[in-house]
Amino acid sequence: AKHPSIHALHRAEKNGLGRAYCDGFAWALERGYEHVFEMDGDLSHNPQDIPAFLEAAGGADLVLGSRYCNGIRVINWPLKRLMLSLFAAKYVRLITGMPFSDPTGGFKCFRRRTLQAIDLGAVASNHYSFQIEMTHKVWRQGLKIAEVPIVFTDRFQGHSKMSRKIVWEAIWITWRLLAENQFRRRPRASTP
Prior knowledge:
It is built from 6 helices and 6 strands, in the order αβαββαβααββα. The protein is an alpha/beta fold. The protein has one domain: Spore Coat Polysaccharide Biosynthesis Protein SpsA, Chain A (Alpha-Beta Complex), CATH 3.90.550.
């Protein structure tokens, strides 16, 4: 990266989105960062929303950027893609019991202690279901989760990596998380 405040992690091979994020989280933890953000680098997630996340993080362990609290806030998605996303959010809430309006979103702010409470090596998801699994892990720990409304603006160039394989992984992961709910302790109350 050309900017001195930006550090790019280069990996020898592609191991999926989930592994890339876990590597980035580990890098941030090693350097002592208090807040660690997860967001799309194509500006689909607006960096100007970061102050709202930091404010919410004062009272939460994880802050989720929600496209769906206070209405639908998505720009440049075809109706089919929007309907798939809304269905996925409802499906995840129904199966896992998580009460959040946008459990599949990828704009998040983790507190340092939150990431330290998660075994990043045990994260099973490699694709978009990583978003669901990480939120679920925090929720299962009984940590406080807050949502802030965001506007998601889909990229104007390039193509989504969404595929049948990715959709099936999300379906499978969601059922695995349901099994975890059945056989492990229940979380204490979280605030959506």
